[in-house]
Hints:
The complex is a heterodimer.
Chain A: E1 3-6, H1 13-22, E2 28-30, H2 33-37, E3 41-44, H3 50-59, H4 62-65, E4 73-76, H5 78-82, E5 84-87, E6 92-93, E7 98-104, E8 113-119, E9 134-140, E10 142-145, E11 150-156, E12 158-166, E13 169-172, H6 180-192
Parallel strand pairs in A: 1-2, 1-3, 3-4, 4-13, 5-7
Antiparallel strand pairs in A: 5-6, 7-10, 8-9, 10-12, 11-12, 12-13
Chain B: E1 5-13, E2 16-17, H1 32-41, E3 47-51, H2 58-72, E4 77-80, H3 86-94, E5 99-102, H4 104-108, H5 111-120, E6 125-134, E7 137-142, E8 147-152, H6 153-162, E9 167-172, H7 184-193, E10 198-201, H8 207-215, E11 221-224, H9 226-229, H10 235-244
Parallel strand pairs in B: 1-3, 1-11, 3-4, 4-5, 5-6, 6-9, 9-10, 10-11
Antiparallel strand pairs in B: 1-2, 6-7, 7-8
Helix pairs in contact in B: 1-2
Amino acid sequence: xxxxxxxxxxxxxxxxxxxxxxxxxxxxxxxxxxxxxxxxxxxxxxxxxxxxxxxxxxxxxxxxxxxxxxxxxxxxxxxxxxxxxxxxxxxxxxxxxxxxxxxxxxxxxxxxxxxxxxxxxxxxxxxxxxxxxxxxxxxxxxxxxxxxxxxxxxxxxxxxxxxxxxxxxxxxxxxxxxxxxxxxxxxxxxxxxxxx
Amino acid sequence: xxxxxxxxxxxxxxxxxxxxxxxxxxxxxxxxxxxxxxxxxxxxxxxxxxxxxxxxxxxxxxxxxxxxxxxxxxxxxxxxxxxxxxxxxxxxxxxxxxxxxxxxxxxxxxxxxxxxxxxxxxxxxxxxxxxxxxxxxxxxxxxxxxxxxxxxxxxxxxxxxxxxxxxxxxxxxxxxxxxxxxxxxxxxxxxxxxxxxxxxxxxxxxxxxxxxxxxxxxxxxxxxxxxxxxxxxxxxxxxxxxxxxxxxxxx
Lengths: 196, 251
């Protein structure tokens, strides 16, 4: 199994690499287009600010590569948000894989949302053996509203997308690599199948 | 629903835990990684490592520790103690820390908060504030609460939020070590006047204190050290008790 974590300078990549190591897989860190395209599975991480992360993607031309990938791709946190159409953060044009616009939580709730929330309405085999209302770890100020591509929801001020899926592309707003046993199950599911 | 977080804090000196830790099942009571793994399994929501080393090699020792923790632990963790530059933060986040906590360096150079937020994002920048109530006014203190500043807790906390910090870790020096409960009045004021999460610290002695700090203190998370290290409170029991009191927790 050839797992490649896209290393474009905007992600907690070490933690993701270690999470796969705990599952028994050696993931490779790379920003080389050929290495990424040849992978069996691709992880697209991201933390920080959307427009500067998107700028880094463009500089390395990865914005052209990622949408064309055919193998299963998992975007995590900001990675998922950048796979969306746009983000309100820094008025950012995203990769347009998911047909939804990322917006900010209002000041009715504390921003960022930091901590463990529950996932519900699970709709993909990414969540095989994951029960409704299990807890996952999130830290974010912006969110993708519920849309046709939503495969899991969380609730903070309102119900929003905790995970998205379109064809071979998956995205989780939460950090599976930091979500204890539940997160490891989700990563394992992504490695095992992630086809439907 | 977002749950309230329970956060054990580990004091670290030269890569080892300092306070006597009463875990019979630990092979090496001084190994922070082993302790962190046990806390992760026992239901801790997050961990804080507070480095109190004062040696020349402290930066490298801490960076090595972070890497070893990230390798083994599958819950988020924050690292604090002596962090004073963008370079310090860069290496710690790169090695797998989820958040860093700054304290004195932010008071001395508030622009550091903006610089860190611009480079790494709000979500990973925690500002720790130690304060003491003196004649009815909460005064920010430095050096583990020993040195008073001119700053008022609430004024400083608002500035910290405005500069972009993602979270505040507030320790009351009046309550720390007393085991008499958290500084709930000040916590509630912080939580109401600010719109970022507040972590309560200082004063945990029994399970009721945690309920009180979440209800009266409106805290988003509660941090404690000795009650967990000496097994006076088991995290699982604490969370079950909180649940009975209708406080949302991850069980």
